[in-house]
Amino acid sequence: MKEIRFFQTIQMRLIIIYILLILIAMQIIGVYFIRTLESSFMSSATESMNRQVALLASFVEPYLTAIQDGQSEEASRMYNELDAVVKNLNTISNAEIQIIDASGKILTTTSLREQSNVGKKNTETEVSRALQGVRYIFESKVDEAGNRYKVIAMPVGSNGKVIGAVYMVASMEDMYATLNRINRILFSGTVIALALTALLGILLAHTITAPIKEITKQAKAMAGGDFNRRVKVLGQDEIGQLGRAFNDMTDHLKEALSINEEEKEKFASILSNMSDGVVATDNQGKVIVVNVRARQMLRLGDKEPLEDVDISELLGLPKEKIDEYVLGERNSVTLDLERGEEEEPMRVRVTFSPIHRKGRGITGTIAVLQDVTEQEKLENARREFVANVSHELRTPLTTIKSYIEALEDGALEDAALSRKFTAVVRGETERMIRLVTDLLHLSKLDSKEASLAKEWTDVRGMLEEVADRFAFQFQQKSIKVNVRTEPDLDPVLVDPDQIDQVLDNLVSNAVKYTGDGGSIELSAGKTAGGFIELCVTDTGIGIPKRDLGRIFDRFYRVDKARSRSLGGTGLGLSIAREIIRAHGGTISIESEVNKGTKVKVTLPAGERREVS
Fold this sequence. Notes:
The structure is a single chain. The chain is an alpha+beta fold. Strand 9 (346-357) and strand 10 (361-371) form a beta hairpin. It has 16 helices and 17 strands. The strands form 4 sheets. It has a 5-stranded antiparallel β-sheet, sandwiched between helices. It has helices at 10-69, 72-89, 125-131, 173-223, 238-273, 292-297, 311-315, 319-327, 373-408, 415-446, 459-469, 471-476, 496-512, 545-548, 560-565, 572-582; strands at 96-101, 106-109, 137-142, 148-158, 161-171, 277-282, 287-290, 332-337, 346-357, 361-371, 455-457, 480-485, 492-494, 519-526, 531-538, 586-592, 596-604.
């Protein structure tokens, strides 16, 4: 910010206003006073001269009459007396006085420098007019030297007969000198008054501008983000009220900004922690906000600048289509976003919403990106699950129905045939019962309703019991069995019935898919992370690599015809996985076609205890 010049400050303006007010007032008063005084002096001087001339005219009238009517000796005496009287007037008056006879000749004068003009005619206009009988002729004149003087001429005579005139010239310089002295006094007084006014103006203006400067400093501090400073309130006047109002405003603004920052932090936290992506644009479609999840979905770097990037370019959609989704009835679209060469595309549902601002209409757009890949997978799995359950139930039901119809059609009369048919019906019924039981078991595991009755269990003993249960099947297919455990293996805290079910399922699958003369190994050991690892390894037909990713899916079978013929429901591995998860462990499969399969189960070891 540029610095404010001194003459542009409020303080200087107030001082100038005070000075101008005093100056104008003094000028008006001075002009009025001088004009009035000059008029008064002039009137007084005129009136004084008028009285003097009138008195002198009445005084010299007898002399002029005697001079005019008398004999030469009498006239000479009267003239000498008149001359003596007039010269004596010079001592009591500074004015020049001339006594003029009827012919205009100067009989006598008070001025020494005008003595040479005695006996000569006075040709002044005022004298001529006075000799014509015009009374009180006043004139103001200025001589060649610039001296101002006043002239008065008055006729002398009576009964309309003019026998002479009195002519007076009075200098006005003394009066104007007095006025000039008064002017100088007024000027000095004005200067002193202006100086005092400037000093008082500085003090008074400071009392006004100091709080304003304080408020200005506070405003600048507020602009810089400092809301802790306070304006000092020094009075109850308008400035004080302004200071208090400014302090209140600072408090309210500080509180409002604090709330705004909190809301901003909440908004930023919500955006950064949302499971959905959010992209906001301005009214031109340029991206202004992208949260972390949206960057992950769109495979954008954390610091990759997106200013001036259009949302149509970001999402790969035409701008016209985006406008249709924002303003039309259909406001969402599903996109497939590439994730990697070995990963399947991410299925994303993009929902567009306009940003409305009061009085300005639509000022931007918000696009919410929702990952629906798993949702669609679950939906497909649900549909597949329903289809599989329906198929698994329909097949035995169809078989049961056909055999019951055969029995009703007469096969019941044949004892051997009826026993065979009822055996098939019984087998299909048991198959449905196993399927329903597995489904109920899975449902309990999914809903966390299945409780675990955990107890400390010896691992080797558990494996040997499983081998004993399948000894007959091993013998039938000439399968070699080996149970191997590490020495001094700690017992595990598990639900033995649930783990037995898992091991039975794994060993049953190994027996089913291992040819005659193969081998199966049951092993147990401790991992580096402190877990107990159980392994079931066979030399069977193996599992193709493309099927390993879905082997734990419900009803998924690698060889559907063989699995169904062997009595499997397709739920065994799914149940095993849920049971192991409930114990806090993991299960995985390693397999190679025609070489065999290895299933690994890891379980928490727990604290070491002695088995009673």
